[in-house]
Amino acid sequence: MKRDKAGNIFRTRLTATLLVVLLPAMMHAQDSITLDYCYRQAEKNYPLRQQTEMLGNSSTLKLGNLNKNYLPQFAVNGGASLQSDVTAVAIDLPKGISVPLMPVLSKDWYKLTLDVNQVIYDGQVTHYQKQVEAFNLKADQKGVEIELYKLKDRINQIFFGIILLKQNESLLKSNRERIEAKLAEVQSGIRNGASLEMNADILQAELVRLDQQQTETRMDRTASYQMLSELISSRVSENTSLSLPQVTLTGTAFEDNRLENELFNIERSKVGLMRNMVTTKWNPKIFAYGQAGYGRPNLNMLDDNFKPWWLFGAKLTWSPWNWNQNKNEKQILSIQNDILRSQQETFDKNLKISSQKDLSEVMKYTELLSQDEQIITLRVKISKTASSQMDNGVISPSDYVSRVNEETQARLNLEIHKIQLIKAKLSYLYTLGKL
After folding, report:
1. Which residues, in sequence order, are CB contacts of 288 under 8 Å at separation 6+?
2. What mean pLDDT is reported for the chain?
3. Which end of the chain is more exposed for a tag (fewer CB within 10 A), N or C?
4. Position 250 pLDDT exceeds 90
């Protein structure tokens, strides 16, 4: 009794463990993912995303180096020289007066110094350099955002491509089942002597053609799932269904929200800052300096012994005239700003053209959908009539297959136009930067 109870407990625990392990896999096989999920996964896992942090780290290091401009700069210098002559003192004295003993300098000189320079005022050069670096960081990070946004368009192409392929597969399967049913009827007629064997061959050939189409569609679908998995850095099995989003356009007025405009504004602001930075070349610059050394001769040029020395002081540099170089640089930067403005206007104009095309696509598919229903209704009636006519020998199997294919194509067009309408709406939102 106790063994049975222990066995039941063990089996219960084993079953629970297997459910915990297998249930996620079973659920994943029947899982459904949305387009928004693909967007988020791609943006989060795409390798380009890592550049945002890298750019920030690089900028921090650059700013750290610029801050070191305010720290004292040390340099060790040394040298030795041998010269053909040295300074000597020649004094003409009246006769009878002896010439005082003058020191004789060595012709080999040695010097080792520690030089220190400290910026007191650099004309705001470092201040502007730090601001330029801040704009560079913003521009680089905005560039990463733009490239990540472009992933959405690539995902759209693959995502809707898979849905269209699966829809095509479904219709091909339905078409094949109808041809198989008709083939069974023809084969029955052949056995009874009421139908020609050629009719069966025609239907059999159509089945092979459908098999070819199904193979092509299946291979394309497999490749598309693999591309989607790679793009979002997450495995998407072929059993995973893709949910069509519900997209509603709240208005058709042109409104440019693209990130590229923000990048243009950053670049133009940077050019404006650099134009102001040119003025720093006119500003005076003040430095403090010091030197400690050891050698021969020292600061006293008449002392021929090795001795230490030191000195310190301050200096001012100012270049009030540079032959209009500053003026020319400002003009160059003004031209660059005009170029950026022209590029932004061109981008905005091209975007407006693209949005008009996308909006036209939305209107086109909306109109086509209303006509698809009428076409399908008529094609269904024609297929039914063709089936009856073939049974009575009025038309050939080839004619019947053509009518069935026309009905299948009409149904396929309806589904394709539904998907293309959603895709056109998303493309319109993507173009405007609202996706």
Report:
1. 117, 118, 120, 312, 313, 314
2. 87
3. N
4. no
3-state helix, strand, coil in the chain (%, to 5): 65, 10, 20
pLDDT bin (cut points 50, 70, 90) of residue 60 is: very high
Is the pLDDT reported for residue 48 higher than 80?
Answer: yes
Give the count of beta carbons closer than 10 Å to the beta carbon of residue 101: 6
* Over residues 78-97, mean pLDDT: 82
Its pTM stands at 0.80
Q: What is the DSSP track for 156-177?
A: HHHHHHHHHHHHHHHHHHHHHH
Mean pLDDT of 99-108: 79
Contact by Cβ (8 Å): 389, 395: yes
* pLDDT computed for residue 385 by the predictor: 92
Which single residue is written with the structure tokens 């975007």? 351
User: Which domains are seen in the chain, by residue range?
Assistant: 31-81+109-432 (1.20.1600.10)
pLDDT average, residue stretch 92-98: 71
Residues 6+ apart with CB under 8 A from 422: 160, 244, 245, 247
* Bigger pLDDT: 60 vs 250: 60
Question: How many contiguous H segments (helices) and E segments (strands) does the chain have?
Answer: 8, 6
- The backbone torsions φ and ψ at residue 97, rounded to the nearest 5 degrees and listed phi first, read -100, 125
Q: Which of 202, 168, 166 is nearest to 183 (CA)?
A: 202
8 Å CB contact between 304 and 104: yes
Task: Assess contact for 199 and 401: CB atoms under 8 A.
Answer: no
Residue 123 DSSP class: T
3-state secondary structure of 120: strand
Lowest average pLDDT, out of 23-27, 73-77, 137-141, goes to 23-27
CB 165, CB 221: distance < 8 Å: yes
Radius of gyration of the chain (CA): 42
> Which contacts qualify for 66-71: CB closer than 8 Å, 24 or more apart?
66/126, 66/129, 66/130, 66/133, 67/126, 67/130, 69/119, 69/122, 69/125, 69/126, 70/119, 70/126
**What is the per-residue pLDDT across 361-392, written as a single tens digit (0 to 9) for each?**
999 999 999 899 899 999 999 999 998 888 88
Tokens of 113: 């110094």
Maximum Cα interatomic distance, the chain, rounded to a whole number of Å:
160
Those residues with Cβ within 8 angstroms of residue 27's Cβ, 6 or more apart along the chain or in another chain? none
What is residue 362's three-state secondary structure?
Answer: helix
State the residue for tokens 């709240």: 250
DSSP SS3 for 238? coil
- The three-state secondary structure class of 113 is strand
